[in-house]
């Protein structure tokens, strides 16, 4: 189970709101210039550790280069971000340089914190690194051939294999894209690829991509993902949800027809890339079923939304394709 035990950020659903997912009233939680020299800080991943919170943050500098930065927080809302990018080490422990790339996810598995992100190797592909202490990170082999984005690990082996979702792509802004699942005995050799689900439906007809680490529930893996529609004015990124089979997670049990969050607020609609909601992580309180969802807004800032896990699952089932 990847549910957390720390007291996660929480705000009750505002009076009069009937939405299954609602926003933190003081969004955004990370400003675009919270790291000196930053242009923007957005699509970022947090996780609970030792009663506090840690995270890997995407920061684009003023040359518009993307790097990953570490952050720490006592409450999951106010974050201290390191001023320099995270340094990667090779398997022998030698420093190999800053973690270049974007859109990190963080997965706790077998006592290690795994970071997957969009790395560059003759095009975008999925970088993988791990840390036991969230201080020193060791890079493994890239998971896939280019071009691929949105590598998202499951938090345990399934059927004896590690599993990762991803979205094969192109070099650019990819006007297509479906979610696939790959399996590995060792987190370095990936195969047994399976189709999971494709772009489709009004708000996600152009492409979809997996978001936070899937959440294990009795009824299946809850997958929160982003879906994209192309309009005469560009792409709109919304948040969707589906349930995957627990033991065959390439099988979709339920897929929610409506989006669960859509860019409507100024900080989601105005920024470097307007109209983008891009979820990368969740915190889930096991005792209360409270869910905090962290998402990048307008490719500029980090924002927070909330849901009750049971309500969200019921909503996905009731509104399933
Ligand atoms: C995708 C990625 C994301 C970004 C999104 C919207 O292709 O680059 O990092 O949030 O586009 O611009």
Describe this structure in words.
The protein is mainly beta and 321 residues long. The chain has a single domain (28-318), classed as Glycosyl hydrolase domain, family 43 (Tachylectin-2, Chain A), CATH 2.115.10. The chain is 4% helix and 48% strand. It is built from two helices and 23 strands. It has helices at 266-269, 309-318; strands at 22-23, 38-49, 52-61, 66-73, 80-81, 87-89, 95-98, 102-109, 112-120, 124-131, 137-139, 148-153, 162-168, 179-184, 191-197, 207-210, 215-217, 220-231, 234-244, 252-255, 277-284, 290-297, 301-308. The strands form five sheets. Strands 7-6-11-10-9-8 form a six-stranded mixed β-sheet, with no helix packed on it. The chain is globular. 50% of the residues are buried. The site of beta-D-mannopyranose has 10 residues, from strand 8.
């Amino acid at each position: 189970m990847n549910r957390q035990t720390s007291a996660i950020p929480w705000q009750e659903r505002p009076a009069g709101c009937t939405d299954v997912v609602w926003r933190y009233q003081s969004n955004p939680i990370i400003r675009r210039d919270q790291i000196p020299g930053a242009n923007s800080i957005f699509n970022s991943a947090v996780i609970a550790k030792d009663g506090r919170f840690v995270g890997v943050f995407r920061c684009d500098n003023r040359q518009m280069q993307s790097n990953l930065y570490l952050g720490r927080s006592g409450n999951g809302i106010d974050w201290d971000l390191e001023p320099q990018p995270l340094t990667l080490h090779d398997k022998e422990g030698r420093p190999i340089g800053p973690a270049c790339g974007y859109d990190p996810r963080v997965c706790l598995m077998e006592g290690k914190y795994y970071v997957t992100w969009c790395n560059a190797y003759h095009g975008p592909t999925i970088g993988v690194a791990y840390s036991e202490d969230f201080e020193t990170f060791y890079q493994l082999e890239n998971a896939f051939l280019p071009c691929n984005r949105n590598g998202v690990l499951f938090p345990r082996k399934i059927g004896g294999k590690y599993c990762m979702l991803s979205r094969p792509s192109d070099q650019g802004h990819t006007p297509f894209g479906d979610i696939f699942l790959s399996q590995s005995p060792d987190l370095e050799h990936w195969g047994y690829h399976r189709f999971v689900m494709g772009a489709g439906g009004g708000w996600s007809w152009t492409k979809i991509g997996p978001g936070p680490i899937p959440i294990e529930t009795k009824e299946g893996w809850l997958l929160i993902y982003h879906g994209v529609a192309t309009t005469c004015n560009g792409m709109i990124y919304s948040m969707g949800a589906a349930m995957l089979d627990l033991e065959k997670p390439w099988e979709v049990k339920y897929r929610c027809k409506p989006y669960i969050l859509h860019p409507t607020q100024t900080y989601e609609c105005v920024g470097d890339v307007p109209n983008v909601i891009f979820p990368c992580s969740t915190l889930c309180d096991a005792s209360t079923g409270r869910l905090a969802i962290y998402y990048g807004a307008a490719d500029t800032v980090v924002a927070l939304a909330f849901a009750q896990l049971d309500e969200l699952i019921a909503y996905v089932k009731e509104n399933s394709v």
